[in-house]
Write a structure and sequence with these properties.
This protein has 344 residues and is an alpha+beta fold. The chain has a domain at 217-306. Helices cover 39% and strands 20% of the residues. It is built from 13 helices and 10 strands. Strands 1, 2, 3, 4, 5, 6, 7, 8, 9 and 10 form a 10-stranded mixed beta sheet that branches. Helix 1 packs across helix 2 and helix 2 (14-27) packs parallel to helix 3. It is elongated, with a radius of gyration of 23 Å. 33% of the residues are buried.
Length: 344
């Protein structure tokens, strides 16, 4: 029924057919339009389908076409609407919709990995490791010509991205249209997703006291680099525990108080580095609420080093995809393009 060419692909390259079939099942036009109808809060479909906008922008994100205009011209007969309508649709796409596309596709694809023996060795047995980091979309070209080379130009948006190394997938994203917002101002939405036996790993930009205490309160774990402004009280003196590959490790017990006056006991781990970081730091302080029986100080320090996995993923996005489309100046459109790259 599907023809001789398809039959040859089935015979000679079955994996290609299976992958294509999976993607059609999750991201086919019919599925995307039905999903959009269920998910969108304000936008609605009149003449321009969500799947059409998705296809046009995908051409740019996947580096097939250099711009939305070029992608539109190549598919103008299929779009059924003007270029202005496409831009208006992109510029009005809710950040909620962009984030839900990442979450829902990950939720469908993640269960396929385990039966195919695609899961990686757990970083810490008994915990679902989630690395969170911020990504800021660079300044857009779509501003006054005299300001295009100014480093302080307006930024189209920022996102907090959650990566699960066991599956190699971005499972969640929290986009913000204010590209100059502090990452800690976006952590309230993240807390709503924290579950028992999660292990959240983040840098010092995601280290406010309230965030750590709430993770601890919810029965989840964290490993984070300590921010200089975080208040704590020393409970035990620091003791040496030996060396790891990058330096000498010592730890101590500290106490942190939440906004209600409740106390939380954390472990504060110091790593004296043999070589300075790219920022020139020779000493790192890492906070965790993991019990010693689950992870020694050395293991915590090694786990924190692996947090760079997410930054490597960001580098892959930039290398393989057009995840930051400089010609898209509207935050909603720019963030939707970034989310398409995360889905890919």
């Amino acid at each position: 029924m599907l023809g001789k060419v398809f039959a040859r692909f089935v015979e000679k390259s079955p994996i290609s057919v299976m992958v294509r079939g999976t993607l059609e099942r999750v991201l086919g036009a019919e599925q995307l339009d039905a999903w959009f109808a269920r998910t969108a809060q304000k936008q609605y479909t009149r003449t321009l389908l969500f799947s059409t906008v998705y296809d046009v922008l995908s051409q740019v994100v996947f580096r097939i076409k250099p711009s939305v205009r070029a992608a539109y011209r190549d598919h103008e007969d299929k779009v059924g609407a003007s270029l202005i309508s496409v831009y208006n649709k992109l510029n009005g796409l809710e950040t909620h919709t962009a984030a839900e596309l990442v979450r829902s596709s990950a939720a469908v694809l993640m269960p396929l990995i385990e039966p195919l023996d695609g899961e990686r060795t757990p970083w810490l047995p008994g915990y679902r490791v989630k690395i969170i980091d911020g990504n800021c979309i660079e300044a857009s070209e779509r501003r006054l010509k005299v300001l295009r080379e100014v480093e302080g130009g307006a930024l189209p948006g920022k996102s907090l991205v959650v990566y699960e190394p066991a599956h190699g997938l971005v499972s969640d994203v929290f986009p913000c249209e204010d590209g100059h917002a502090q990452e800690r101002s976006m952590l309230g939405a993240v807390l709503e997703t924290v579950q028992v036996n999660d292990l959240w790993m983040q840098d010092r930009n995601c280290c406010p006291c309230a965030f750590l205490c709430e993770i601890d309160q919810r029965g989840a774990g964290f490993i984070t680099r300590q921010h200089e402004g975080l208040p704590f009280e020393t409970v035990h003196v620091r003791r040496s525990v030996g060396r790891i590959e990058t330096g000498h490790v010592a730890e101590q017990r500290v106490q942190v108080r939440d906004a209600q006056g409740g106390t939380h006991l954390f472990r504060r781990i110091r790593v004296k580095l043999d070589q300075a970081t790219r920022d020139g730091d020779r000493v790192l302080y890492i906070l965790t609420n993991l019990p010693l029986r689950k992870a020694s100080a050395k293991r915590v320090a090694r786990l924190y080093r692996k947090r760079w996995t997410l930054e490597t993923a960001f580098q892959h996005l930039e290398a393989y995809f057009h995840s930051e489309i400089h010609t898209l100046g509207y935050p909603k459109a720019a963030l939707f393009g970034f989310c398409l790259a995360l889905v890919a």
